[in-house]
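agent> Task received from the user: take the single chain below, predict its 3D structure, and emit structure tokens. No templates, no multimer pairing.
agent> Plan: (1) validate residues, (2) run structure prediction, (3) serialize to tokens, (4) report one or two observations.
agent> Step 1 OK, no nonstandard residues flagged.
tool_call: predict_structure(input=
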Amino acid sequence: MLQFPKLYFSDGAMKIPKFHLDRIFKELEIEEIDAVESAVLPQPLITTDVQKLEIEDTEKQPDQARFLGSEIASYPLNDLAAIVFYRLHNKLLLHSITPSELESKLILPAGKGFAEAFADKISFDLQTFAAQHRYEISKSHVIQHPGVKDPILILSAVGFRPATEADDTFLLRSGLKLIVLNSLAPVPILLLTELYGEKIRYNFDPEFYKWCRELDYEAHISGKSFMKFRKKFPSPGKYYLMGEGGVAACSYNLVKNYGVGVEIDLEKLPMFTTTKLLCDLFRLDPLCIDATGSLLAALDERSCEELLTLCTERNIPATVVGELTDSHTDCLFTNYDDNKLRMFNPDFDELHRFRYDLL
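)
tool_result: status=success, residues=359
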């Protein structure tokens, strides 16, 4: 049986609802909880790392290491399967892991009339994506629970990587450049236009809303444009697939894991103009918003030039947005007034904060 990621919940300052989730954890075998009466949503951030597993039968796989990777997302969107699948798919590609089995769990709000149709859509999409990439989904579970407000999709994969392909031991240090590949951020545009279209149409020209809806979301979310040449990425270097919590979550992970400081120039971030405008309209922090489909790279000067050249040849948006420093161990950004400010360290993505702050 596949293992699923543990969910960690944090209290927040904004208005967020509380639910009794002890039965959810028990039913889904996500985490054992003793004497816990309630947990808080929105959904917290999930680590993007993969976990190395011990191989029980070394005779069957003597030259391979076994890994577990998982992804989770909670959005009331028809494209939920695409978001979760490509997050996991790209994670496996980036770590050179060949999956042997995939397992999905879909948790739906109880009593919703759309539940069956929505579950069928998610199941069909997952099977379609899996077939396109020659994966096999061994198990799929659909559960309804009254403690869930938005659908939650969990996708896990166990896979193998040749033992000869050692883990990357490149250490981050001061002076390395930070590059963002692919424009930020299609998921916020997708969710906000689908759920709050009336407000958007009221505040913007109707053509703006139409353009938002015509964006090729799957192409951007999948990151296909840059993942196709991942094996040509310059080495040494570190590469991070961004997701919930966006640039800020990724930056604070660097600080936590490597003890370096991060400095980002807000004006240089390759972000869709529509995303900027929607963040302004809904008062969302663009640094803490879901950046699925984009990648952050930390490289030295030479490798930086190599990567930028690769991206230019393939018409991939890529920009040097900042650097690492040893002058502090914080995450700072330079705003449009050229002032350096500390990034907010998110416990959960801005879209979830916004959704639950409204309740």
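agent> Step 4: summary for the user.
The chain has two domains: 18-162, 177-357.
agent> Done.
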